[in-house]
Amino acid sequence: xxxxxxxxxxxxxxxxxxxxxxxxxxxxxxxxxxxxxxxxxxxxxxxxxxxxxxxxxxxxxxxxxxxxxxxxxxxxxxxxxxxxxxxxxxxxxxxxxxxxxxxxxxxxxxxxxxxxxxxxxxxxxxxxxxxxxxxxxxxxxxxxxxxxxxxxxxxxxxxxxxxxxxxxxxxxxxxxxxxxxxxxxxxxxxxxxxxxxxxxxxxxxxxxxxxxxxxxxxxxxxxxxxxxxxxxxxxxxxxxxxxxxxxxxxxxxxxxxxxxxxxxxxxxxxxxxxxxxxxxxxxxxxxxxxxxxxxxxxxxxxxxxxxxxxxxxxxxxxxxxxxxxxx
Length: 327
What we know:
With 327 residues, the chain is mainly α. The chain has one domain. The chain contains 12 helices and 2 strands. The protein has a two-stranded antiparallel sheet with strand order 1-2. Helix 4 runs antiparallel to helix 8. The longest helix has 29 residues.
């Protein structure tokens, strides 16, 4: 492990390029990518298993969604509320309250902020919980409710596993890639200085991130971020795809914002969580707008590879961006 004055831990630098879009695609590389993401205990596999269980036992059946009645809408909201609390709260308890892993693989030296007026309630965790559980869960539920209503009434194309088994599986694999594509362009929009100042800065209060930080956003940002779910209004899918997508965008954001790179069990890395790639974005702002699925940052010159040279370039670029706004 590598430690310095800036970071409690960082991976080997400069950061490698794991994107399937940034190289001539080979069968070997693609097989390795599929294995890491779908054939081992990964964030995606865990969220898919939760989605299958929630579809079977927690969410209302699709037939109930034919009309906008209060019962199934409240049930959907309660399930989403419970899942966000369970996943974000569970990760926060494990890593930041009980400190089960100590500072091993933790990126930032610091703890979550308290008695800091930058945050609502002068407390980072309480601030993050408020925005996640109010605007976040409400808008997540609203997008899901509208999508399920459209499906239940036949207004959008739907499939079953029996009717389209290949597309059913392929859609699950592609949804995180679609989300990464959508996230990059929405995120770039949010870094336009006006929108950053009035909207996105709320999320960027979290320089030192924790599980509750991932879904803590201004209501306008929640709307833009969650509009990724509108893909189901166009492309044929199944309620399981919608639920998996909902979990990936909502509770899944807690998993990628733990502040730790991996979950250790008996000193072995068992689950990949946050990435240093995105941690650099929270520290230096105008870099790494996307995630490691997409090559856009490398292609457009906004990639921060973790080195001091990248930090200098990023700071110069940030000054240039905001000086244009002031002139």
